[in-house]
Amino acid sequence: MKQPVSLIALDMDGTLFNGQSEISKEDQDAIREASSRRIHVAISTGRPYAGLPVTLLSGLGVSYAITSNGAAVYHLPDRLCIHESAMEPALVCPIIEELQKKSIHMDAFINGDGFSQRSCEGKIDCLDMPTSIKRYIHRTRTFTDDLAAYIRVHNLNVQKMTLNFYPQDGTFLYRDEVMQILSEHPEITFLSGGYHNLEFTRAGVTKGNGLTLLCSHLGVDIEETLACGDTQNDIDILKTAAIGVAMENALPEVKEIADFGTRSN
User: Fold this and answer.
1) Mean pLDDT of 47-74
2) What is the pLDDT of residues 221-260, one digit of tens each?
3) CB 68 within 8 A of CB 87
């Protein structure tokens, strides 16, 4: 690449976060060093704003985050949303109501916060994911009796839906059936964000589009960007950035499209 890197976009889970959902001292020092050289370091995550360690990131010089797979871009210190492409109730609620017939864990990301069915609260620890992620879900969700009804009554736009599946006998309950349901809705985009989940947003929403919007906001040339990731929801941003970097622990299809590989998270 002929031009220098002016913006680095880092995925969180499986990339910047280690197995305990922490940012290592080595990585913190590297982010400070990049920031001191006036390189923008941004987060690119499937998490909502409320799932970010904002105080820590701001202290490292990170000022922006592409959240909910690109559905919302925030200025971190003041939670200012500079872009949102969310699903209105008329689009998302019929899909949620169909999925509510299945025994799955559902999270809705709304205005940067996470909401979930109360019936899921007691089964979070049954999910096949690291303990640190389970603690994060417990800590950051608001639980409601009927998620679809809550969204309708309050006329809320949903940035992203995350669907997690309960393991049973080496398989994941209802995952194939849910994929079929989602595939029948061209008005949404769905993929996996890791830990055997499925995530969906408004059609066309990607981390790559979020990166393009952030570059426009900051006046940065897309040819001066670098992105790091590990799962399916990182593929588009690794293709969009001038340099796409896959973690050692990345999925094979992520490594295949990356320009470079690096060490594991």
Assistant:
1) 97
2) 999 999 999 999 999 999 999 999 999 999 999 999 999 9
3) no
Q: Which pairing describes strands 160-164 and 188-191: parallel, antiparallel, or unpaired?
A: unpaired
Q: Which amino acid would we find at residue 6?
A: S
pLDDT at residue 184 is higher than 90 = yes
Q: CB 34: neighbour CB atoms within 10 A?
A: 19
**pLDDT of res. 1:** 47
Alpha-carbon distances of 1 from 57, 222, 223, rounded to whole Å: 28, 12, 8
Cα distance between residue 214 and residue 65, in whole Å: 9
Which two three-digit tokens encode residue 243?
Answer: 């340099």
Query: Distance (Å, rounded) from C-alpha 122 to C-alpha 41?
Result: 37
Distance CA 79, CA 82 (A): 9
The model's pLDDT over 4-19, given as tens digits with 9 standing for 90+, comes to 999 999 999 999 999 9
Question: Vertex 12, ends 179 and 95: CA angle to 5°?
Answer: 25
Q: Would you tell me how many other CB atoms lie within 10 Å of the CB of residue 78?
A: 9
pTM of the model: 0.95
